[in-house]
């Protein structure tokens, strides 16, 4: 009887099958590397959240000093003393008017993309490309363009010019988000309307738009919040005005706004002014963050409704 | 009948959108034409900007734009990808649902507020700690020269831009990583790959062009940012190797000169700067589109 195991030559390059199944050598190294990557990634996420927290905390801490009811309801006096009432009213006016221009055009553009142009058609591709380019346009460039278009010809900075500039910033955002939301509307709803012999425009107005309404509203809110915080488009077209007076006539005069208030006063040498600028920043940031949270909640609810 | 009118309305809105872009291009070219015919392409290479002497050149601003944006991308790209990986592959669902929106909210902070915060908090921090430390360790590289006391510098502007670009890259790369088919990841895991090996071997290779597109979009945002950069970059003249000196970017040069015009060529020269920004903006968005369409082709082939 010969010993069989002695006659089989083992290939020394293969792993030893009788070795115990515990991590050693390179396997342990691989696990450690993977663990390090995990830590780096979660650390990065922590860093981003911490930076958001830091900015919000600093603005809130310093802004709270200036904040009071009279800060919100009185006009500025002297060099950025007093309150910010006129800038608040002005921002609401300019942004509302910008929304009045951008929302209908944006939603109709979104409807054109989803309801009329085939997704692969040349016109739809061209339009999507234009929307991408408009969205990539630096906002200061928009300001310069509206300066050339309106201010240089009328020799007058007006709130209206500011609204037009903000509308150009909002337009691609609204069109893009409307398009995406309209695409989420189930095909069965369109086909159901078609099967009942409903006109296209009636099915859009009566069925498709209502179904996508929550999502479209989300896009409108987000773009409005974005426009409310924009400074660069206003700089050339709506920054010359009496900073201490309320101005309601957006067609005839420059209208004060919160971003321009911050931009023109943040480096004033008076402590009172700097406190007030922090206060204005706090008010603006609160509005924008609340609008963002609200929009997200709305989006989640309308998504759930559409899929459920 | 109603259908016709409705189609007409939608088509008009679409045409209006296209018209806006055409008008933007036309306005910039016509507004810049006096400066273009006076300075020509040499405008791009000339570094001095002295409005009261009628001397205008974009080179210093282009340099400041490039340095601050490249610095922001260098910092934000790896960080953003790491956050994208964390949110798509590592975070428990409950944490993901909170951290994801918070990261995106970083992008919602208005630039004028971020810039003001940068001047009040970030710049002193940079001048007191970051810049001296970098100077003492890497001082032999000309980029890290002698720090200034104010902290208003290309470096600080680059840090601010990092915070603005980071959420864009993070959110886009998270969405990309979520599109990687689960079978591929499971297959790699079944072969015994660790999470890092799955990332390196499967997730990153299948999304590389999309991540590149996200980076280009972030770059476009950084290049065109005006207000926050104007506040933090310190409005310096000339081209200096050191990042710690004040500088200017294309957008910040436009934003600082918005009130005054001392020379009849000044406004056309600002239009010229805006035209350069427009070209850069269009190139980046087209580039991102080309890259990501290649990505789409890859994904459809993989299915």
Brief account:
The complex is a heterodimer of chains A (308) and B (303). With 308 residues, chain A is mostly helical.
Classification by helices and strands of chain A: mainly alpha
Give the C-alpha Rg of chain A.
29 Å
Number of domains of chain B: 1
User: Regarding quaternary structure, how should these chains be classified?
Assistant: heterodimer
Q: Largest interface, by Cβ-Cβ below 8 angstroms: which chains and how many residues each? A: A-B, 89 and 83 residues
What percent of the residues of chain B sit in helical stretches (DSSP H or I)? over 70%
CATH class assignment of chain A: Mainly Alpha
* Count of DSSP-assigned helices of chain A: 12
Q: How helical, in percent, are the residues of chain A?
A: over 70%
- Low-pLDDT residue spans of chain A: none
Topology of chain A as a string of helices (H) and strands (E) = HHHEEHHHHHHHHH
Determine the strand fraction of chain A and express it as a percent band. under 5%
Specify the number of helices of chain B: 11
Shape-level CATH architecture of chain B: Orthogonal Bundle
What is the total tally of β strands of chain A? 2
Question: How much strand of chain B?
Answer: under 5%
What's the CATH H-level superfamily name of chain A? MetI-like
Mind summarizing the main beta sheet of chain A?
2 strands, antiparallel
Strand order of the largest sheet of chain A: 1-2
**Number of extended strands of chain B:** 0
Mean pLDDT of chain B: 88
């Amino acid at each position: 009887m010969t010993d069989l195991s002695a006659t089989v030559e083992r290939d020394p390059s293969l792993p030893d099958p009788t070795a115990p199944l515990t991590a050693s050598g390179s396997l342990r190294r691989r696990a450690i590397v993977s663990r390090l990557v995990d830590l780096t990634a979660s650390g990065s996420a922590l860093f981003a959240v911490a930076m958001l927290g830091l900015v919000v905390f600093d603005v809130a801490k310093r802004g709270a000093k200036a904040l009071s009811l009279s800060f919100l309801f009185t006009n500025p006096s002297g060099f950025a003393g007093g309150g910010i009432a006129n800038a608040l009213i002005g921002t609401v006016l300019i942004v509302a008017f910008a929304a009045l221009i951008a929302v209908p055009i944006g939603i109709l553009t979104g409807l054109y993309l989803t309801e009329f142009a085939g997704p692969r058609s040349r016109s739809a591709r061209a339009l999507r490309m234009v929307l991408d380019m408009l969205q990539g346009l630096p906002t200061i460039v928009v300001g310069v363009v509206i300066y050339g278009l309106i201010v240089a010809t009328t020799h007058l900075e007006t709130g209206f010019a500011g609204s037009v500039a903000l509308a150009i910033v909002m337009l691609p955002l609204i069109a893009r988000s409307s398009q995406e939301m309209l695409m989420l509307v189930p095909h069965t709803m369109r086909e159901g309307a078609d099967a009942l012999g409903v006109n296209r425009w009636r099915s859009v107005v009566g069925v498709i738009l209502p179904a996508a309404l929550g999502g479209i509203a989300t896009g409108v809110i987000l773009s409005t919040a974005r426009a409310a915080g924009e400074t660069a488009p206003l700089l050339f077209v709506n920054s010359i005005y009496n900073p201490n007076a309320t101005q309601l006539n957006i067609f005839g005069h420059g209208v004060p706004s919160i971003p321009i208030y911050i931009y023109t006063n943040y480096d004033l040498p008076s402590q009172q002014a700097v406190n007030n600028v922090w206060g204005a920043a706090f008010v603006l940031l609160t509005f924008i963050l609340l609008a963002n949270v609200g929009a997200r909640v709305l989006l989640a609810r309308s998504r759930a409704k559409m899929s459920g | 009948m109603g259908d016709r009118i409705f189609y007409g309305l939608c088509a008009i809105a679409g045409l209006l959108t296209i018209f806006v872009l055409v008008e933007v291009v036309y306005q910039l070219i016509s507004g810049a034409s006096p400066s273009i015919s006076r300075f020509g392409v040499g405008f791009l290479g000339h570094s001095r900007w002295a409005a009261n002497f009628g001397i205008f050149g974009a080179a210093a601003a282009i340099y400041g734009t490039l340095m601050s944006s490249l610095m922001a991308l260098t910092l934000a790209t790896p960080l953003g990808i790491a956050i994208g990986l964390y949110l798509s592959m590592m975070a428990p669902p409950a944490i993901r649902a909170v951290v994801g929106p918070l990261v995106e909210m970083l992008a919602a902070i208005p630039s004028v507020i971020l810039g003001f915060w940068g001047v009040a908090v970030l710049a002193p921090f940079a001048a007191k700690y970051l810049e001296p430390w970098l100077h003492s360790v890497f001082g032999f590289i000309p980029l890290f020269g002698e720090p200034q006391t104010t902290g208003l510098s290309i470096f600080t502007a680059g840090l601010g831009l990092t915070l603005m670009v980071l959420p864009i890259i993070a959110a886009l790369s998270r969405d990309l990583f979520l599109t990687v088919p689960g079978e591929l990841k499971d297959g790699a895991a079944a072969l015994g790959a660790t999470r890092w090996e799955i990332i390196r071997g499967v997730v990153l290779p299948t999304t590389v062009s999309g991540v590149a597109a996200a980076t280009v979009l972030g770059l476009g945002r950084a290049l065109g940012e005006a207000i926050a950069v104007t506040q933090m970059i310190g409005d310096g003249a000339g081209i200096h190797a050191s990042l710690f000196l004040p500088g200017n970017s294309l957008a910040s040069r436009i934003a600082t000169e918005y009130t005054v015009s001392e020379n009849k060529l000044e406004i056309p020269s600002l239009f010229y700067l805006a035209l350069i920004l427009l070209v850069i903006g269009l190139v980046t968005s087209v580039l991102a589109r080309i890259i990501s369409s290649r990505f789409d082709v890859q994904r459809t082939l993989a299915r």
